[in-house]
Design goal:
The complex is a heterodimer of chains A (288) and B (156).
Chain A (H helix, E strand, L loop, with lengths): L7 H8 L4 E5 L3 E4 L3 H7 L3 E3 H23 L8 H20 L7 H17 L7 H12 L17 H33 L8 H45 L5 H35 L4
Chain B lengths: L5 H131 L5 H13 L2
Helix pairs in contact in B: 1-2
């Protein structure tokens, strides 16, 4: 436990608070010293820890794959190349199975989603106090009050990270829909289904109903995508924090949960990737 | 869990990562994979072609072997026939030659006989005359009796 002078609630809250830098109404651009400070900043704030870890892990992924791509050989693959090729073939296979259109974007997009989310998720397996304590020490050297240095290690337990990705996917869904069906086709898809009648007056009456249903369907995609990943990882993280509080018993508890969590980590990354592919293939194909 | 600028930051980071992946990671690896696939396919192709070639070559070799055996048999037969012929010819020649030699010898013998008879005739007449001359000595008219004896000798 970090600091024996904390209550359990404080400990949990401390762990669930991001390191926030933003425009405080009173202090101007500054680090948030508490959850209340962070709230007061509203939209004009940035989670430094989330950005740091996600970009760092994304660059790790790209560096790893790029280093292989640079010296890729067509002969017998060895070591890391094996792994990279396996990943790429796995993603390529998934995309080919589901997405029947032609696109140079979908497959690399899926690979990035899978690997990036996997790496961000796997930070969950680092013991919950380890990196935050380190951050507090470093913050202490820079003159910050260690108690106010918040640090969340797993970027996917930040709704901003997951929603940022799912909204990008949503933008792609809109782009692909309009590109393959045209703007009028896309609007027709939103308004003329699922209720359709040859009677023109009845149809006009049905348009708002259709529109409501279809827009909900459409908006549910990015929201569910983001919330599913966020919810799973947030809950997992919370349980790790709770386990960390039970004292000596945490060791036998921690291990099975971590083993089980490996499944969730991989599965959630895979689900996010698969659903992205499915949504995009639905966007390119005629649905009705 | 308040929504803030992180959202946009994440979206931008995501877009940049995807762009980088699409530009610098995916194509070279994919190309390498496809090239390897092609290489393997070519290799398998070549292997099956080689097997077929081998079969053809074996067939051809067998064919050639069979043909050459047949040829050898033929040549052997011809040679046998030819040798028989030669032997036959030689035998024929030898017989003809022998007959010729025999005929020559025979005619020579005849000539010898004739000549001996001729000589003998000449001698006999002389001997007979000489004998008769000695026996009869006086009473013989040489010219008259010689004619007689010659006539006798001619009858021999």
């Amino acid at each position: 436990m970090a600091g024996n002078n904390m209550t359990s609630t404080e400990y949990i809250q401390h762990h669930l608070q991001n390191l926030t830098y933003g425009l405080h109404p009173e202090n101007g651009w500054s680090m948030a010293h508490s959850a209340a400070d962070a709230k007061a900043m509203g939209f004009w704030a940035i989670h430094v820890d989330t950005m740091l870890w996600s970009i760092g892990l994304g660059m790790l992924f790209l560096w790893l794959f790029r280093s292989v791509a640079k010296r890729v050989s067509t002969g017998v693959p060895t070591g890391l190349q094996n792994f990279v090729e396996m990943m790429i073939e796995f993603v390529d296979g998934s995309v080919r199975e589901t997405f029947h259109g032609k696109s140079r974007l979908i497959a690399p997009l899926s690979l990035t989603i899978f690997c990036w989310i996997f790496l961000m998720n796997i930070m969950d397996l680092v013991p919950v106090d380890f990196l935050p304590l380190l951050a507090q020490k470093i913050g202490g050297w820079f003159g910050a009050d260690p108690a106010h240095v918040y640090f969340k290690v797993v970027p996917t337990t930040d709704i901003n990270a997951t929603l940022g990705m799912s909204l990008s996917v949503f933008a792609l869904i809109l782009f692909y829909s309009i590109r393959s069906k045209g703007l009028s086709g896309f609007i027709a898809e939103l308004t003329l289904h699922p209720f359709n009648t040859p009677n023109i007056f009845a149809q006009i009456l049905l348009i708002p109903v259709n529109f409501l249903l279809e827009v909900v369907t459409l908006l549910a995609k990015p929201v569910s995508l983001a919330l599913r990943l966020f919810g799973n990882l947030y809950a997992g993280e919370l349980i790790f924090i709770l386990i960390a509080m039970v004292g000596l018993w945490q060791l036998p508890l921690h291990f099975p949960w971590a083993v089980f969590h490996i499944l969730i980590i991989t599965l959630q990354a895979f689900i996010f990737m698969m659903l992205t592919i499915v949504y995009l293939s639905m966007a390119t194909e005629e649905q009705h | 869990m308040n929504l803030n600028l992180t959202l946009i930051g994440q979206a931008i980071a995501f877009a940049v990562f995807v762009w980088f992946c699409m530009k610098y990671v995916w194509p070279p690896v994919m190309q390498a994979l496809q090239e390897r696939q092609k290489k393997i396919a070519d290799g398998l192709d070549a292997a099956s072609r080689a097997t077929r070639d081998l079969e053809l070559a074996q067939e051809k070799a067998e064919e050639t072997l069979r043909e050459s055996k047949e040829q050898a048999q033929q040549i052997l037969e011809q040679a046998n026939k030819r040798s028989n012929q030669i032997v036959e010819e030689a035998r024929e020649t030898a017989r003809a030659e022998g007959e010729r030699i025999i005929a020559g010898a025979r005619s020579e013998i005849d000539q010898e006989i004739n000549r001996a008879k001729e000589e003998l005739r000449a001698q006999v007449s002389l001997l007979a005359v000489a004998g008769a001359e000695r026996i009869l000595e006086s009473s013989i008219d040489e010219a008259k009796h010689r004619e007689l004896v010659d006539k006798l000798a001619a009858e021999l």
